[in-house]
Design brief:
By secondary structure, the chain is mainly alpha-helical. It is 38% helix and 5% strand. The protein has a domain at 18-58. It starts with 24 loop residues before the first strand and ends with a helix.
Length: 84
């Protein structure tokens, strides 16, 4: 039985090699590439924990939707129409 690659599995990439092809996320610390953001995050947590845990967490700032003056007037008119 022939074994391809050093991992012993067909199509598997050994962990010491850089993933190429569909990889679109790359590690800023070592340059290793990953096809998913989750893979990159797992790599950074395990391979670069000191840098990963020092990085500030950027929460998503969500702006509350606001009505402009014209939309407020239209909504008020519609509310009056529906009440009568």
């Amino acid at each position: 039985m022939a074994v391809s690659g050093s991992s012993g599995l067909d199509g598997a990439v050994p962990s010491n090699r850089i993933v190429v092809g569909n990889a679109i996320y790359s590690c800023a610390d070592c340059g290793r590439c990953f096809p998913t953001l989750r893979g990159l995050s797992q790599h950074r947590r395990s391979a670069h924990p000191d840098v990963y845990h020092l990085a500030p967490v950027n929460p998503i700032v969500r702006k509350k939707a606001r009505w402009d003056r014209e939309e407020s007037v239209l909504m008020a008119r519609e509310e009056l129409r529906l009440r009568s």
